[in-house]
Design a protein that fits this description.
single chain, alpha+beta, four-stranded antiparallel sheet, three-stranded antiparallel sheet, elongated
């Protein structure tokens, strides 16, 4: 088993994040520039700018994904949700060939996608991050609030 990283640690697809945010800013600037360059009324210009802002907002939501591990557990931030897990809730960390991101098998029988670790652009980094999160989960196995109280 590899040595787990020091806590707290944040896993996120940094290159994907940079690309999404850069594209969002570029799109917003181009659409705003077009709105200002064309002979449009104020309402039409505002519609252009709001459309650019909406596109930026969607790309920013896609870029916010991350997995944060600390001493007490893991916080999974996906596109439109955030979920806090105690270490004891995580039974297994999976990143199988062909998976778009890591999946966490949970003690309640469900599986939670963790989009903060995805092999899309940086496959080796995602594999290393998945191994690190797995090592952390194994090192903290059996720890949870119910164990601390007993």
């Amino acid at each position: 088993m590899p040595e787990p990283p020091a806590l707290p640690v944040t896993f996120r697809p940094n290159l994907t994040r940079v690309i999404l945010l850069t594209a969002g800013v570029a799109i917003l600037l181009v659409i705003t520039g077009v709105a200002l360059a064309l002979q449009l009324g104020p309402g039409e210009r505002l519609t252009f700018v709001l459309t650019g802002a909406l596109i930026f907002w969607v790309l920013a939501l896609l870029a916010r994904v991350k997995v944060v591990a600390d001493d007490s557990g893991v916080t999974v931030v996906n596109i439109a949700s955030r979920r806090r897990l105690d270490w004891a809730e995580i039974l297994r960390v999976n990143l199988r060939p062909g998976d778009p991101w890591v999946f966490l098998d949970l003690s309640d029988g469900t599986s939670l996608p963790a989009l903060g670790i995805q092999p899309g652009i940086a496959k080796q980094r995602a594999i290393a991050d998945a191994h690190a999160l797995r090592a952390l989960a194994e090192a903290h196995a059996g720890q949870g609030p119910e164990r601390d109280q007993g």
